[in-house]
C-alpha cells in the first residue's frame, strides 16, 4: 500500500520541482509590508515568503524571554497564521501534526485530543495534561483540561508549542505548553473571508482592526456550519473575539474578550465492523437519541505591564471564564456550569554587565473554579427525574522563580522552580444515595527545570534540558463506582531529559535533532465501568524514549520563485513500566494510543506573482488500542494538496485558494478510544473514522484605510 501511494505521489513532486526550476525570473514583490512585522515576529525560517533561511532571526515568547529560537534551550515549534490558512482543513489538527512529537487526533469538529510525546493519550474525549495560554490568559481549567476547538484561529499571529514538561514556569502540564499569541495590527483595515467545503461546510469570518499611535483594537466574528461526514454530525458555531492594546509611556494594557456558542451533534465512536463497512454511520444509541451538546462559553482578561527604571518590569493578568453546557446522551442528560477567576503576576529584573545579561523573575498564578453538574433521565429526549446533583470547588496555586544567564550570546543557562498546591472540595447535593461529599488536598509539588544551550559553531547550537512536570487528576480519574471519591489518588508526575542540536547550514538548510527520555509515575487511569461510570486509580508508570528530527531545505532560491522541502519525524519506544491494572501486569507493553512512528513530508513552492502550491504527506504507524496490546490500528498515509493565489494592490489584498484533503481517499481512524468497553451486547467502539477525500475553497479580502 505504501509503495503504491509513493508511486502516485512521486510524479507530483517531480513536476513541482521541474516547474520551479524552469520558471522565469521576476523580482516583483507580491507581499504587502503593511501588516505588523512585530506580530509576525521575524519568522523567517518558517515562512515561504522569505529570501533565505536564518533561524537566528526567529524570536519566541516561551518562558517570557523574547529570545531567538536559535538561543532558547529546549524544543519549541512555531506555527504561523499563514501556515494554518494554507491547510485544506477546517480544524487545527493537520497543522499541529506537522511538528515532530505532537499528535492531534480529531474525532469530529468538537471532539479532539492533543498529545505531546505520548502524554495525554488516556484522555477519552478531549485534551488534558497540556497547558495552554491565550497571550497571558490561561485557557486550561483546574483539572488540566483544555478545549482547543473553541478558539478562533483567525485572531492568532502564531502558536508556540513547548514540548516536554515546563512546569517550572507554567505549572501543571506534564506534556507541554501551547502559547496562542494574538495578532496586534498596526494599520486600520477590514477583512473578510469565506471558506466552503465538502459536507455542506461553510465558514465566514469578518475582522475590523483599528490602529493608532498608542492603541490598537481588533474585533473578529466568525460562523462555522457543517452537516458533517457522518450521521448525526451537524455542527454550528459562532465566535466573537475582541482584543485591545493601549500604550502610554512605560505602561501597556492588553484587554481580551471572547464568546463562543456551539451546537454540535455527536456521532460518537463505532465498532470495527461498522468502521469497515459503513464508517459514515453514527453509533446506534447516539443516532437513536440524536445526541448533541449545546454550550455557551465566555472568557477574557486584562494584562497590565509596567516598565520601571533600572530594568525592572511588573506584569499582572486578571482573567476569568464562564461555561454552560447541556449534553443529551443515550443514557442520561448532562447539565453543567463552571466558572473560574484568577490572576497571574510576574516581577522581573534584568541585570546587564558588559556582554553578560542576567534575568530574574518571580511570579504567582492562582485561580479558583466552581464546577456544578447534574444528570437527569433521558425520557424521549426530554429531561426526567434527577439522577445526581454535584458541585466541586477547585483551588490551584503556583509560585514560581526563574533566572537565566546569557554570556556573549555564546552560552545560555536557565533555571526555574515551581511550587504547586491543588485542592478540591466536592459537595454531593443529591442525598438519596447518601452524602459522598468531601475535601481532597493533594501533596505539594516542587517542579524544577534546568536548561542550557551553547555555541558549537557559528550557526549550530547544542542544548540540554532536565525538567519535572505534573498533572492533577481529572474529574473522572477521582471517581469510584456510585460517585464515590478515591481519596488516595495522586497527581501524575514525571522527569524529562533532553539533548539536542539545532542550526543552519549555509543559507539553504535548517535542522533540529532532539533525543529525549521521560519517566512518568503514578499514571492516572480512568477505567470505564459503564456508560457513565468510571474508576480512577494510579496504576504504575510509563517510559517515553524518543527521537525527533526536523529538516527545512530550500530547493529553489530564485528572485521570483522559492521552493522548500520540509521533513520532520518522531520515532519512539513508549512502554509501560511497573504497570498493573485489575490484577493484570502490563509492564513492558507498548503505550496505548500512541504510534511509534510519525513522519511529515512537505513541498511548498511559491512565485512572487502570487501563486503558491503546498503538498503534505503524512505517515502514521500503527498503535495499540488496549493495554494488553491485543488490538492495534492499521498504519496509514495521507496526502493533502493546497494551491492558491495572493495579490496585494495599493489598499486591497486578495487571496483565493483551493485544496484537497486525503487526496488518495484512504480509510483511516482519525481518533481512537483506547480500552473501549463492550456495554451489554455491543462490541467495543474504538474508532472515529477519518474524513474521506474532501475539498475546501476560500476567498480572503482585506482593505486598508
Notes on the protein architecture:
- The protein is mainly β and 705 residues long.
- The chain has one domain: Maltoporin, Chain A, CATH 2.40.170.20.
- It is built from 7 helices and 39 strands.
- The protein has a 22-stranded antiparallel beta barrel. It has a 5-stranded mixed beta sheet with strand order 1-8-9-5-6.
- A hairpin with a 4-residue loop joins strand 16 and strand 17.
- The longest helix is centred in the N-terminal third of the chain and has 20 residues.
- The protein is globular and about 70 Å long.
Key descriptive features of the protein:
705 residues; mainly beta; Maltoporin, Chain A; 39 strands; globular; disordered N terminus
Instruction: Label the CATH architecture.
Output: Beta Barrel
Whole-Å distance between the termini?
A: 53 Å
- The helix count comes to 7
Strand content: over 45%
Oligomer: single chain
Superfamily at the CATH H level? Answer: TonB-dependent receptor, beta-barrel domain
**Number of structurally distinct domains:** 1
Helix % is: under 10%
Unreliable residue runs: 1-53
Fold-level CATH name = Maltoporin, Chain A
Kindly provide the radius of gyration, computed on alpha-carbon positions and rounded to a whole number of angstroms: 25 Å
Most strands sheet = 22 strands, antiparallel, barrel
Count every beta strand, where a strand is a DSSP E run of 2 or more residues: 39
CATH class: Mainly Beta
Give the averaged pLDDT, no decimals: 87
Overall structural class, as computed from helix and strand content, comes to mainly beta
- Principal-axis shape equals globular
Amino acid at each position: 500500500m505504501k509503495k503504491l501511494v509513493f508511486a502516485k505521489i512521486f510524479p507530483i513532486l517531480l513536476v513541482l520541482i521541474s516547474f520551479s526550476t524552469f520558471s522565469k525570473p521576476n523580482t516583483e514583490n507580491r507581499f504587502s509590508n503593511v501588516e505588523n512585522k512585530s506580530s509576525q515576529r521575524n519568522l523567517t525560517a518558517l515562512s515561504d515568503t522569505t529570501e533565505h533561511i536564518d533561524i537566528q532571526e526567529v524570536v519566541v515568547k516561551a518562558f517570557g524571554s523574547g529570545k531567538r529560537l536559535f538561543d532558547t534551550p529546549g524544543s519549541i515549534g512555531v506555527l504561523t497564521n499563514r501556515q494554518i490558512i494554507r491547510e485544506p482543513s477546517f480544524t487545527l489538527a493537520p497543522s499541529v501534526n506537522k511538528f515532530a512529537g505532537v499528535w492531534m487526533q480529531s474525532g469530529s469538529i468538537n471532539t479532539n485530543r492533543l498529545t505531546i510525546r505520548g502524554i495525554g493519550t488516556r484522555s477519552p474525549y478531549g485534551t488534558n495534561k497540556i497547558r495552554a495560554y491565550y497571550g497571558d490568559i490561561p485557557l486550561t481549567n483546574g483539572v488540566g483540561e483544555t478545549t482547543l476547538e473553541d478558539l478562533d484561529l483567525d485572531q492568532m499571529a502564531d502558536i508556540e508549542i513547548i514540548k516536554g514538561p515546563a512546569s517550572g514556569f507554567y505549572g501543571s502540564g506534564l506534556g507541554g505548553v501551547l502559547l496562542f499569541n494574538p495578532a496586534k495590527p498596526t494599520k486600520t483595515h477590514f477583512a473578510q473571508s469565506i471558506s466552503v467545503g465538502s459536507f455542506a461546510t461553510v465558514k465566514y469570518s469578518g475582522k475590523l482592526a483599528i490602529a493608532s499611535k498608542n492603541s490598537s483594537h481588533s474585533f473578529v466574528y466568525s460562523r462555522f456550519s457543517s452537516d458533517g461526514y457522518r450521521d448525526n454530525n451537524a455542527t454550528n458555531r459562532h465566535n466573537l473575539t475582541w482584543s485591545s492594546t493601549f500604550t502610554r509611556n512605560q505602561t501597556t494594557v492588553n484587554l481580551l474578550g471572547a464568546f463562543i456558542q456551539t451546537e454540535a451533534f455527536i456521532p460518537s465512536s463505532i465498532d470495527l465492523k461498522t468502521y469497515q463497512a459503513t464508517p459514515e454511520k453514527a453509533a446506534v444509541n447516539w443516532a437513536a437519541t440524536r445526541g448533541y451538546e449545546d454550550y455557551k462559553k465566555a472568557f477574557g482578561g486584562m494584562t497590565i505591564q509596567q516598565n520601571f527604571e533600572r530594568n525592572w518590569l511588573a506584569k499582572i493578568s486578571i482573567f476569568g471564564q464562564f461555561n454552560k453546557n447541556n449534553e443529551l446522551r443515550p443514557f442520561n442528560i448532562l447539565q453543567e456550569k463552571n466558572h473560574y477567576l484568577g490572576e497571574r503576576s510576574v516581577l522581573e529584573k534584568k541585570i546587564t554587565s558588559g556582554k553578560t545579561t542576567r534575568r530574574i523573575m518571580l511570579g504567582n498564578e492562582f485561580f479558583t473554579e466552581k464546577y456544578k453538574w447534574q444528570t437527569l433521565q433521558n425520557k424521549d429526549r426530554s429531561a426526567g427525574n434527577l439522577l445526581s446533583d454535584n458541585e466541586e470547588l477547585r483551588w490551584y496555586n503556583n509560585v514560581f522563580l526563574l533566572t537565566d544567564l546569557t554570556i556573549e550570546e555564546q552560552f545560555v543557562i536557565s533555571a526555574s522552580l515551581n511550587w504547586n498546591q491543588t485542592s478540591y472540595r466536592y459537595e454531593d447535593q443529591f442525598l438519596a444515595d447518601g452524602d459522598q461529599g468531601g475535601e481532597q488536598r493533594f501533596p505539594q509539588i516542587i517542579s524544577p527545570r534546568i536548561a542550557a544551550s551553547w555555541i558549537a559553531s557559528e550557526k549550530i547550537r547544542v542544548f540540554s534540558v532536565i525538567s519535572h512536570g505534573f498533572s492533577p487528576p481529572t474529574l473522572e480519574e477521582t471517581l469510584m463506582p456510585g460517585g464515590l471519591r478515591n481519596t488516595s489518588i495522586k497527581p501524575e508526575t514525571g522527569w524529562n531529559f533532553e539533548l539536542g542540536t539545532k542550526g543552519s547550514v549555509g543559507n539553504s538548510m535548517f535542522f533540529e535533532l532532539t533525543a529525549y527520555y521521560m519517566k512518568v509515575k503514578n499514571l492516572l487511569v480512568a477505567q470505564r465501568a459503564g456508560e457513565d461510570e468510571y474508576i480512577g486509580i494510579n496504576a504504575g508508570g510509563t517510559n517515553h524514549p524518543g527521537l525527533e528530527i526536523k529538516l527545512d531545505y530550500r530547493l529553489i532560491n530564485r528572485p521570483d520563485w522559492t521552493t522548500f522541502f520540509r521533513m520532520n519525524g518522531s520515532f519512539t519506544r513508549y512502554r509501560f513500566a511497573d504497570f498493573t491494572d485489575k490484577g493484570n501486569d502490563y509492564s513492558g507493553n507498548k503505550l496505548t494510543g500512541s504510534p511509534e512512528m510519525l513522519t511529515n513530508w512537505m513541498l511548498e513552492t511559491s512565485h512572487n506573482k502570487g501563486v503558491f502550491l503546498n503538498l503534505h504527506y503524512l505517515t502514521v504507524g500503527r498503535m495499540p488500542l488496549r493495554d494488553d496490546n491485543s488490538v492495534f490500528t492499521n498504519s496509514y498515509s495521507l496526502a493533502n494538496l493546497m494551491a492558491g493565489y495572493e495579490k496585494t494592490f495599493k489598499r486591497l489584498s486578495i487571496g483565493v485558494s483551493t485544496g484537497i484533503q486525503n487526496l488518495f481517499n484512504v480509510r483511516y481512524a482519525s481518533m481512537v478510544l483506547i480500552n473501549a468497553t463492550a456495554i451489554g451486547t455491543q462490541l467495543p467502539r474504538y474508532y472515529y473514522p477519518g474524513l474521506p477525500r474532501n475539498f475546501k475553497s476560500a476567498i480572503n479580502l482585506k482593505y486598508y484605510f
